[in-house]
Amino acid sequence: MASVEFKGIVKRFKDNTVLNGVDVDIKDHEFVVIVGPSGCGKTTLLRMLAGLEEVTDGEILIDALRVNELHPSKRQIAMVFQDYALYPHMTVEENMSFALRLKRTGRSEIEARVQEAAGILQLQKLLKRMPKQLSGGQRQRVAIGRAIVRNPKVFLFDEPLSNLDAKLREEMRVEIAKLYQRLNATIIYVTHDQVEAMTLAGRIVVMNKGIVQQVGSPIEVYRKPANLFVAGFIGSPTMNFFSGQLRSEGDRLLFVNENMKLPIPSFLLHDGDRHAGREVVVGVRPDDVLVGRDGAECSGKMEAVLEVCELLGHRENLYLKLGGLRLLATVEAFFDRSPGSAVTLCFNYRNMHVFDAATERRISE
Ligand SMILES: Nc1ncnc2c1ncn2[C@@H]1O[C@H](COP(=O)(O)OP(=O)(O)OP(=O)(O)O)[C@@H](O)[C@H]1O
Ligand SMILES: [Mg+2]
After folding, report:
1. Residue 335 in contact with residue 318, Cβ under 8 Å?
2. 190 band by pLDDT with thresholds 50, 70 and 90
3. Is 52 touching ligand 1 by the criterion CB < 6 Å?
């Protein structure tokens, strides 16, 4: 398997810059997930690595060798696309062996590789079927099988599960995790799905508008989002954001807006005085809005009104109104209150996030 480095990658289509200085180092055997909104350049980045798209500026290295000018067939990369792209007139076996037949690989070698991949993906019984005789999940496995038989250094997955229904997606997610353990491959995986990103990734790369916003382990990106964009993008339901100002009061630092006056403890922001007067945005995940609870982790108490409850099963979403602000709390079901009733809430201040309003960068620990 192989390491991959993107160094200062720029991609322009005519005068439209879609990647603007992407630097990411991917280690041998790593599972890296790229997430970001539609159009931020994820597919373009994968296509450039596979050699399907020219690099406008910067360098791509595979195992420390520059590949910018290397022909796609020489890069030992296999890409699995969202739409499977199976050949409809070929059986599963023929689909899987196609690339090897093109390369004039020996018949017994092809047979052995197809059998091995079919074993890994549990496709043995389906080898003689045509794609139209397969379910979506089975087709997806064939598409992955086609990549495996090529024995690539790097696997690229571009939203491979997004066409599947929720249950199948869950099953395939586990299959991909197992596949990774078994192949010990280097994998770069693009997804829109938060759960896929959090569960599969060794590291997550969060992108927006052609720029890398943060690279880190799933838990780092979730617990310490580097800026407002990452904070809002990672985590579901989305983080609550409140705009306001930091003020000094005696020896305390407070976050103040029309509806809130919250102490900001020194472990969140050191040298509180230094920040007094600063316009900030405070972020609190729905899980960290504590409703009707006391405790050491609790910030200042606030009164809110319950607008809507959504029962999710073991959890419940509470849509709350606090003065002129709206916020979401996720609590253990069953929260036995009817809409319109008053509730007391506070924030788990250990998990509060503070961002500079102007730069949008994280300033809290
Ligand atoms: N061949 C092309 N010619 C011109 N513009 C292109 C071309 N391919 C992609 N783009 C543009 O580049 C930008 C990035 O596209 P890309 O497909 O990489 O986004 P993405 O992050 O994969 O989005 P999605 O999540 O929707 O798949 C988009 O604005 C797209 O319109
Ligand atoms: Mg894409």
Report:
1. yes
2. very high
3. no
Q: Could you tell me how far CA 254 lies from the centroid of its own chain?
A: 33
CB of 43 closer than 6 angstroms to any ligand 1 atom: yes
| Minimal-distance CA residue to ligand 1 atom 4 | 13
Task: Indicate the pTM of the whole model.
Answer: 0.92
Label residue 136 by pLDDT band (50, 70, 90). Answer: confident
210 lines ligand 1 (CB under 6 A): no
CA distance 359 to 227: 9
43 C-alpha to ligand 1 centroid (Å): 7
Q: How far is the CA of 209 from the centre of ligand 1 (A)?
A: 10
pLDDT at 84: 75
The two tokens of residue 20 are 């603007």
From the CA of 209, how far away is ligand 2's center (Å)? 13
User: 185: which residues sit within 8 A by CB, 6+ positions away?
Assistant: 1, 29, 152, 154, 155
Q: Which domains does the chain have, with CATH numbers?
A: 4-233 (3.40.50.300), 240-356 (2.40.50.140)
Residue 251: phi, psi to the nearest 5? Answer: -100, 15
The CA distance from 99 to 339, in Å, is 60
